[in-house]
From TrEMBL:
Example of a GO cellular component annotation carried by this entry: plasma membrane
Main location: membrane
Protein name (database record): Oligopeptide transport system permease protein OppC
Keywords, ordered alphabetically: Cell inner membrane, Cell membrane, Membrane, Peptide transport, Protein transport, Transmembrane, Transmembrane helix, Transport
Lineage: Bacteria, Pseudomonadati, Spirochaetota, Spirochaetia, Spirochaetales
Length: 360
């Protein structure tokens, strides 16, 4: 009898501790991350952006082991070949034949001359004997005979790395300054925010251009220059979030239990601002890539033989009328990635926004 009573009490206790709704139905508790992921999955554009970004990251990480040529490998005889699934020799022969036919037509001839025929025959024999003509350039080559596909893949590694490094640097500085300023307030807040206002008054791109022109075209200098004042916005955003949280009940409870100030900031306050930080990160990566592209377009970005999407676009602009694929391939690749990042950032913003629970 006692054992049955104990079992009944245990069952009643378990049932009473399980959350139920007004219809007495069991409710499964959902965490903030689980709820955000559920709403993100309903946003088809954001989910598509996530898949595209993941694909780009995977290709960038696996670039050294992918079956593509080196980004710096020059084959002058294959310069400016159009995109083709045929071998480089076949493509080269087709291009030379078309060039000779246009030349003959311009000279008023309907057929190739004997000299042109001999050149084509010599080229055919060379293609049969030289194994270098067995290469395939599905996205064409540039003016130095380098594979555009390899240049775009390795250029993507640099552009994405610049976006990630710039974002991480800006987050590290901005989150620290914003959290300290918002939590302590007073003269510390005034001092830090007035410094932020002064930095905001500087012409950002002009400062970056001057740094790159004076200190030289170095990748490290480029990272420092791009991240120089990029932390200002996130510092203000985090400051506002910390100010709204520092007097909350759970913060007061942590203080009453004797938690130190650094523990309160890094263990209680900042985790509750993680959603806005993640959203800002996804939206700032495209900005860093665009800034680097602008610098590369001015000739102050990545130096040869390395390349980024911006430098490839800059090179392609000069030959767009003759060889449009040298501009279109990196431009389309970069545009797709930037659109995907923006869609993902918008989706994360809606997913982490508590007011959007009933909208998505």
């Amino acid at each position: 009898m006692n054992m049955k009573t104990t079992d009944n009490i245990t069952e009643d206790t378990v049932v009473s501790e399980t959350p139920v709704n007004e219809f007495n139905q069991l409710v499964k508790p959902v965490s903030l991350w689980g709820d955000a992921w559920r709403r993100l999955k309903k946003n088809k554009m954001a989910l598509t952006g996530l898949c595209v970004v993941g694909f780009y990251l995977l290709i960038s990480l696996l670039a050294p082991v992918l079956p593509i040529y080196s980004y710096s490998d020059q084959t002058i005889v294959h310069q400016n070949l159009p995109p083709s699934f045929s071998s480089a020799g076949e493509t080269l022969l087709r291009v030379r034949h078309a060039e000779m036919f246009r030349q003959a037509k311009a000279e008023g001839r309907a057929e190739l001359s004997a000299k042109q025929t001999e050149e084509l025959a010599a080229l055919q024999n060379e293609i049969k004997t030289d194994t270098v003509h067995n290469r395939r350039y599905i996205l064409g080559t540039d003016a130095l005979g380098r594979d555009v596909l390899a240049r775009v893949v390795y250029g993507g590694r640099i552009s994405i790395m610049i976006g990630l490094v710039g974002t991480i640097t800006s987050l590290f500085i901005g989150v620290f300054v914003g959290s300290v300023s918002g939590y302590f307030g007073g003269w510390i807040d005034n001092l830090l925010m007035r410094f932020v206002d002064i930095m905001y008054g500087l012409p950002y791109m002009l400062v970056v251009i001057i740094m790159m022109a004076i200190l030289g075209q170095n990748m490290i200098i480029l990272f420092v220059a791009i991240a120089l004042v990029s932390w200002l916005t996130i510092a203000r955003v985090v400051r506002g979030q910390v100010i709204s949280l520092k007097n909350a009940e759970f913060i007061e409870a942590a203080r009453s239990m004797g938690a130190s100030t650094p523990r309160i900031i890094f263990k209680h306050v900042l985790p509750n601002t993680l959603g806005i930080i993640i959203v800002y990160s996804t939206l700032s990566i495209p900005g860093f890539i665009m800034n680097e592209s602008f610098l590369s377009f001015l000739g102050l970005g990545i130096s040869a033989p390395r390349a980024s999407w911006g430098s490839l676009v800059s090179e392609g602009v000069n030959v767009i009328t003759l060889y449009p694929w040298q501009l279109l391939v990196p431009a389309i690749t970069m545009t797709v990635f930037l659109f995907a990042m923006n869609f993902l950032g918008d989706g994360l913003r809606d997913a982490f926004d508590p007011q959007s629970k009933n909208r998505v």
